[in-house]
Amino acid sequence: MAWPERICTGILALAVGACAGNQDPLAPHMMSDETANVYPTNYKSEILAYLRTYLNDPTGIRDAAIGQPALRPVHDHNRYVVCLRFSARKSSGSGYAGAKDNMMVFVAGKLDRLLEAGARETCKDDTLAAFPELEHLTR
Question: Does 14 map to a domain?
C-alpha cells in the first residue's frame, strides 16, 4: 500500500472512531426517552444476576438495602434508577469494605450499568428496604 493510501486509510479510521466516541452512553442508538424509560419490572433479579458476576466475591454481603425504581436525571437524560446500598467483602478477602451507595441505571426496562459516582447525593432521600436476596448470593 502506497503512502497516500495509508494516509487516507488512517484519516478514515480516525473519522469513524471520532463519530463512535461522541455517542451518549445512556442513549443507546439515540432512542427516545419514551422508548428508553420503560419501567424495569424485573429489576431485582437483573441486579442480582449482574452483581453475581460484577463482585469479586458475591458471598457474604452485608447490610443490603434497595429502593424502588424512579426516574432520575442521569447525565443529560432521565432514566429509571434503583438506589442500592451494601457492604461487600474486600477483594483481599480480609474483612468488609464498608457500605457503598450505588445507582443501577435502566434503559428500555433492562439494566444498563452501575454508577457509584453521584450515588450518595442522588439516593440520599430514598427510602431503602432490606434486600435479603442480595445478602444470600452465591457464586
Answer: no
Query: Phi and psi (nearest 5°) for 96?
Result: -115, 150
Sequence-distant (≥ 6) Cβ neighbours of residue 109 within 8 angstroms: 38, 39, 40, 41, 80
- Residue 74: give the domain boundaries: 25-135
Provide the whole-model pTM. 0.75
Whether 34 maps to a domain, the answer reads yes
Q: Which residues contact 55 (CB under 8 A, 6 or more apart)?
A: 61, 88, 137
**Structural domain contains residue 67:** yes
What's the pLDDT tens digit per position in 34-81? 888 999 999 999 999 999 998 888 888 999 999 999 999 988 889 999
**Residue 36 within any structural domain of the chain:** yes
CA distance 81 to 93: 30
